[in-house]
Structure formats: C-alpha cells, structure tokens
Design a protein that fits this description.
The chain has 146 residues and is α+β, with helices and mostly antiparallel strands. It has a single domain, classed as Roll (Thiol Ester Dehydrase, Chain A). It contains 4 helices and 6 strands; from the N terminus they run E-E-H-H-H-H-E-E-E-E. Strand 4 and strand 5 form a beta hairpin. The radius of gyration is 17 Å and the shape is elongated.
Length: 146
Amino acid sequence: MRVDDLRDMPPCVTEWFTLDAARVRAFADATEDWQFIHLDEARAAAETPFGGAVAHGFLTLSMLSAMSYRVTEGLTGVASSVNYGFDRIRFVSPVRVGARVRGRFAVAGVDERAGALDVHWDVEIEIEGAERPALVANWITRIYLD
C-alpha cells in the first residue's frame, strides 16, 4: 500500500502482546515508577480494587508504538514516522499483569504538510477476554515522505 492510500486504509487489528511481569518490571525500572500496584501481586490483591497487580497505564499506552509498526508495515513512500501527539487519551480499564492486549487502529483523518502527512488514528487497546478496552485515544503520527 502506498502512503497516498492511507485515507482509504481499512481498520486494522494487531496481534496480541503480553504485559507480563518482566515487561512491567522493566517499565517500572525505566520510569522509576515502582508503585506496589504494579509489582506486588499479593499486596495489590489485598489493598486495591484491581484483584492483583496491574500494568502501568503508560506502559499500555507505549505499546501503541510496537502495534503501529505492525499496522503500517509494508507502507511504501515513507522515509520515517514519528509520534506527534494525542488529542485525547482515556485509560478505561486496568490491565492485569500477565494479560494480553492488542491494538485496533482506524484512520480518522490525514492532514497534508510539506513533505509529510499527519495521520490521525482512532486507536483502542483491547484486553483479551474483557468487555471494555484498556484505553482509547486519538493519536497523531507524522509520516515523512521519501
């Protein structure tokens, strides 16, 4: 698919990603967010309404990068792509440590710039087996054209 065809791109669903304890610990170490709700299963089960340890919301959000690579893989005419920002992010449901998540991407709009496109994505991160998503967002990526 050519980058010019983004406006007509059908919605895409990624493969599943596991937010296991090792990934959560690595994120905690990288961000220095060692709150017990992420790292101590027993204490989180006893002291929170989550029923156990939950992944960081920002870890879940950061998975959009890996997911977007799958969605735009094979797109031709792209020199590079960067995160431009968000118009809206809502953390709808916590993700239990060990759960699997996947992304749902739909192009909401494309703004043309000199040598680039700003792609507005409606994204949702789904939790396997859950009724409600982990998060929903309106995300903007800037694609530099070659």
